[in-house]
Write a structure and sequence with these properties.
- Helix content is 39%, strand content 24%.
- It is α/β, with parallel strands linked by helices.
- It folds into 2 domains: 70 residues, Ubiquitin-like (UB roll); 138 residues, Rossmann fold (3-Layer(aba) Sandwich), CATH 3.40.50.
Length: 288
């Protein structure tokens, strides 16, 4: 009988090594993840190494992005401005030359808000895109409280001394008080306190003059002036108002009331008043 030979069940040395390697967790991860990634990355790198392929891919991205940005729900069709006067609204439309319709992705609202706030007349602004494709601009304007005559002419100032805008003529804002002089715009809060203390004289008031950048003069009609001290001018003016209320001091023939020395106020008379005073004194001493 012919004897049958059996194959050796033990694997070959190479097969044994491969089986052992397949049992290694790190190698199995490499086969599942690393090898496909390396093949894909290599193929993509080879494809992108060709300039025509790169240009075609970039064009595809630009077209896809444009298709999304130009969708009707993302388009802004008009701009609405609330809280601004006609002149300020016109200035806003000038500095924001947006060509409608435009995609909302092409609008930098933070930059646009900074441009609006840079206007003298604007204190704060809020920009948003509301439903219906409307660019909404909400503006808080500065409230002018005084007129300042400075090197650039007449300017409107708010309560903090910030410029609101230029003025062509004093008669355009007759109800606003006038301040003049170097440093006047930097001391608007103090000027407002003085104006409040001088309320009984508003009908006669011509304005406040900043003298030497240190103190104020209150100018009235008939060329009268109240010279205020550098320190605590409001209290000094209140004392002058009390004296005027008691004896009608400012209704007399005075050129100025000098309060720069609080302990020694000085009155300066007009020429006619001085002559009349000398005449009365001459009569008192019996001179002809």
């Amino acid at each position: 009988m012919q004897q049958m030979t059996r194959s050796d069940p033990a694997p070959s040395r190479l097969r044994y090594r491969i089986q052992r390697l397949m049992l290694t967790p790190l190698f199995r991860v490499f086969l599942r993840v690393g090898l496909p990634f390396a093949v894909t990355f290599g193929g993509a790198s080879l494809w992108f190494s060709m300039p025509d392929n790169r240009d075609a891919f970039l064009d595809l991205i630009i077209e896809a992005r444009s298709a999304v940005e130009q969708r009707p729900e993302f388009m802004v069709k008009l701009m609405a401005i609330d809280g601004a006067s006609d002149g300020v609204a016109a200035d806003i439309r000038t500095i924001l030359p947006v060509g409608f319709p435009v995609s909302s992705f092409g609008l930098d609202l933070d930059v646009m808000r900074d441009q609006v706030v840079a206007l003298d007349a604007v204190e704060s602004a809020r920009l948003r895109i509301r439903q219906g494709g409307v660019l909404q601009v909400d503006v808080d304007e500065r409230l002018p409280v005084v007129l300042w005559r400075g090197p650039e002419g007449l300017q409107l100032l708010d309560s903090s001394g910030v410029k609101v805008g230029p003025v062509q003529a004093r008669t355009d804002f007759p109800a606003l008080p006038l301040i003049v002089g170097r440093g006047a715009s930097k001391n608007v809060p103090e000027a407002l306190e003085l104006l409040a203390a001088a309320e009984p004289l508003w009908s006669r008031m011509r304005g406040l003059v900043r003298v030497g950048g240190r103190r104020w003069d209150l100018v009235l009609d008939r060329d009268q002036r109240i010279l205020l001290p550098e320190e605590d001018p409001v209290r000094a003016l209140e004392r002058a108002m009390a004296l005027d209320h008691a004896v009608d001091m400012l209704d007399r023939d005075l050129l100025s009331v000098d309060l720069r020395l609080p302990q020694r106020p000085t009155l300066r008379l007009t020429n006619n008043a001085q002559q009349e005073l000398w005449r009365i004194k001459a009569i008192e001493v019996g001179e002809p």
